[in-house]
Amino acid sequence: SRKKTFHTFFHHIAGAHSDELAAASRLEESINFYQTSTPDVAKLFHIDTAAKRPSVVLLKKEEEKLTFYDGEFKASAIADFVSANKLPLVTTLTQETSPSIFGNPIKKQILLFAVASESSKFLPIFKEGAKPFKGKLLFVFVELDNQEVGEPVADYFGITGQETTVHAYTGNEDAKKFFLDGEVSLEAIKDFAEGFLEDKLTPFYKSEPVPEPNDGDVKVVVGKNLDLIVLDESKDVLLDIYAPWCGHCQSLEPTYNKLAKHLRGVDSLVIAKMDGTANEHPHAKSDGYPTILFYPAGKKSFEPITFEGERTVVDMYKFIKKHASIPFKLKR
Predict the structure, then answer these.
(1) Mean pLDDT throughout 218-244?
(2) For residue 78, which of 20, 137, 138 has the smallest C-alpha distance?
(3) Which CATH number fits domain 90-197: 3.40.50.2000, 3.40.50.200, 3.40.30.10, 2.60.40.420?
(4) For the domain bounded by 5-85, which CATH number is listed?
(5) For residue 230, what pLDDT band results from cuts at 50, 70 and 90?
């Protein structure tokens, strides 16, 4: 039997309200919907028979067994309520729960990353912190030492090692991530969640350490120095976003190095590369590897221009000449 049920106490088991409930049940198929007009049956499901009807309650087997609905009695509103509230206060990420987390109408998530042996210490705090945000944020526990789901998700968030951390994730197309800096305490979790809900947090992006020195023909860009190198308004910048395992990227590397060597004397021009698997930045998004982007000087607030020609020295050189804001000549 299903672990979650939706119970409604009506004056009559017919009419507009009953029709809305039936429509909601078709929109939310993972929950069993029941209706009754018998007070003794309603009492069995913790419904106050003296309260205004229709009275509605969502029952679950988790700690938070009852959730009462006081919204508009419309199918879409009821289905959204059920979808948002059918999960427990904190959901453990597994392959089974993944669709209900990432397919939930509530997109914003707070995630606790911890190894299984630490979960008994941090999960009670995390659950307590989740209570004020029920129906507003999803609270998710990710077991770091779970190879099936924990490790891939931790890698996506740039988490290395087994330290307990808390992150926030917008869960939408911009996929912004945020990091709780400092001790994982109840107050810190609540403050972090509140700041996230009110869009007051600064996004966190994966980054390798800033390389020193960085004076080769091809400048090495990481998440932390992209603003300094790529978004420098005084420079035209060509950026190759690559993946270490990508065969096409490996084939491009000697050609790209040769291009950079030819252009090393042009002070207004920077030829750069970034490992897209280890670094992130909102102004450097790739549609696969390699992705070659050009950032004209003085136009860094605009989207970069994507290179789509043949990956030869000549074609890339012509592309740079065409789009560069600062004209240049090669030194002989």
Answers:
(1) 97
(2) 20
(3) 3.40.30.10
(4) 3.40.30.10
(5) very high
